[in-house]
Amino acid sequence: MTLLHVGILDDLAQDIEAWTKGMSRSENVLPEIVGWLTELPVLQGFLGKSDKLVPLGGGRLMGLEVDVPQEVHDYQALLVQGLHVLLDDLGLDNIDDFILSSPALGYRSPRWLPHIAVGKARTRHDPPVEIAPVPVEFGDSQIRNRDSLPLPG
């Protein structure tokens, strides 16, 4: 489950540079982003459950909508608040507009839907489908592809 998607870091740094009209240069922004990512607190593992298959990504994908404990929602909100602080420190204005328009971030909605992507939809307009409840166990949070991050500073 993705708690915060930041996309490809080089692309995000370029989006920031474009948004700030070159005031925040990619080569200066990238180490700041990496440093922020590597300092994020870890969310301990948790249990969730799913009883619904829902369309994602404008209907192109399907996913299990997952009911998660409140602390997971709180942690995800903390991540978004931290992203706002990072982007403010990097000189961005209209941060919510940036988040929703950045191709690297790829957000289509300001609302986070806990889910597990499970594959392509059969048709673009597949409706949600009720399924038998499925328990889902998640491990501690981690940065996907952490080993490929450039060293900060």
Keywords:
153 residues, alpha+beta, four-stranded antiparallel β-sheet, globular
Question: How does this structure look, described?
Answer:
The protein has 153 residues and is α+β, with helices and mostly antiparallel strands. The protein has one domain (9-139). The protein is 33% helix and 22% strand. It has helices at residues 9-19, 26-38, 70-89, 95-101; strands spanning 46-56, 61-67, 115-120, 129-138. Strand 1 and strand 2 form a beta hairpin. It is globular. The relative contact order is 0.27.
| Helix content percent band | 25-40%
Structural class determined from secondary elements: alpha+beta
Order of helices and strands: HHEEHHEE
Largest sheet: 4 strands, antiparallel
Total beta strand runs: 4
How many domains? The number is: 1
Shape: globular
Terminal CA distance reads 29 Å
Radius of gyration from CA coordinates: 17 Å
Average pLDDT number: 90
Task: Give the amount of beta strand, in percent.
Answer: 15-25%
Number of helices: 4
- Poorly predicted regions are none
Strands of the largest sheet, in order across it? 3-2-1-4
Task: Describe the secondary structure blueprint for this structure.
Elements (H helix, E strand, L loop, with lengths): L8 H11 L6 H13 L7 E11 L4 E7 L2 H20 L5 H7 L13 E6 L8 E10 L15
Antiparallel strand pairs: 1-2, 1-4, 2-3
Task: Briefly characterize the structure.
With 153 residues, the chain is α+β, with helices and mostly antiparallel strands. The protein contains four helices and four strands.
